[in-house]
Amino acid sequence: MSKKNSILIPGIAAILILVAVQVYVIKDLWVDKDILFDLKYKILSQEAMDQLNRLSRTDGFENALVVLNNYAKETLTDELGRIKSEEELRKLKEEALQGAYKILNELENLSPYLKGYFKRQGSEGDFSRNIEINYLQFLDFDNKLEIYANPAIFRSPNAQNDTLKGKPKSKILVNRFFREDNYYRISFDFYIDFSGKQKMVFRDMAIYLAMSIFSILVVVTILIVTFRNLMEEKRLSNLKTDFINNMTHEIKTPLSTITVAGKTLEIERIRSDENKILETARLIGKQSVHLNQLINLILEISMWERTQFQLDKKEVDIGELMHDIVDSFRTGNNRVVIQEDYSFRGQKIRLDVVYFTTMINNLLSNAVKYSDKDPVIRVEGRENREGIVISITDNGIGIGKQDLKHVFDKFYRVSQGNIHKTKGLGLGLYYVKRIAEAHGGSVTVESKPGEGSTFTITLPK
Hints:
Layout: H1 3-56, H2 62-79, H3 86-107, H4 110-120, E1 128-139, E2 144-147, H5 151-154, E3 171-180, E4 184-193, H6 197-264, H7 268-271, H8 274-306, E5 314-317, H9 318-332, E6 337-342, E7 348-351, H10 353-369, E8 376-383, E9 388-393, H11 401-404, H12 428-438, E10 442-447, E11 453-459
Parallel strand pairs: 6-8
Antiparallel strand pairs: 1-2, 1-4, 3-4, 5-7, 8-9, 9-11, 10-11
Helix pairs in contact: 1-4, 1-6, 2-3, 6-8, 9-10, 10-12
């Protein structure tokens, strides 16, 4: 397992466990809040009914039950005697049940009293009532009409409401009523139903939900930051390792050549040949210069990290300077085709000629090094409102999308796998960026693999 996966997988697993725990806790808390909501209004309802009974000696259904008694008498005396078939009897029972429902719903006084009491107690008073008849019987000395609205409930008159057991219900049972008069016997339940119950429960749980979401976001943020830091440390460690490997290779090459050349001078046959001695001495000198350049480059980079650039700016004709730099580079690289297109119109600019020349040469050298065919380079220059814009386009191997954001990092080198096809310390483009920024400008790159690259330098006028 890679280091990336060894960090990412446990982190994701920890977040999933945290989310699962939070969901379980919130779900359990939601059930508790729902139960407490029902219990609160059940207690308030009982208090309200007790107060109503003390004040007016009624339970809110006195008027309705008086009318129901008269309705039962009329049904028994006027309607029941006319029944001649089972179908007519069935219809009469349905009509009697609907009539009883209508009377109870239209003439009950309990709902408005409960709403007022809830509001006086500072609680929500917007609910809808729900009356469910469990058993209804119309009777007198001669006739009897039994109407079962819910036989299962009536056969278990001692059964308790199960609102507090299992999943909470939307309806809250206020009371179960049983009444008997001259012409009827009835059992019914009175419920209150809050349409905004879920919103009220959610409002009570808002702080818990916010804390839960916040804790998950904090853990996710910490994981992301930690993962990014570890990946950045890993990248920097790889860059350091690559730099040491490249530097070792670059330095060992001239050292090996100098060592071989030195041993060559120990051969008597070589010492007797003045031309061989001179050729070997030149080789040693050339490699010594190369080694010295590498060491100086590393020392310069170290100096730039500690101090700012010390630029020696002079006013120069940017078009002439660019042509001189490109022409000099072309002379030392015969196989390179360089096309120039400038529209500076004699524009003069203040810059450090030495550093500027080094910057352009680095870009031209990269265009040659990272080309798998005969290099063709196009150098363009123009003015715009921001300043001077110089672009160098090549027909090289290009740069992958994943490498584009790192090409100007110190020691970073674009590679294929773990194999670098060209020599270098990964400092050239870093050098280019630092020089451009020291002049108050910037450098950008656009590239696609196999289609070459375009480096654009922008300098203020």
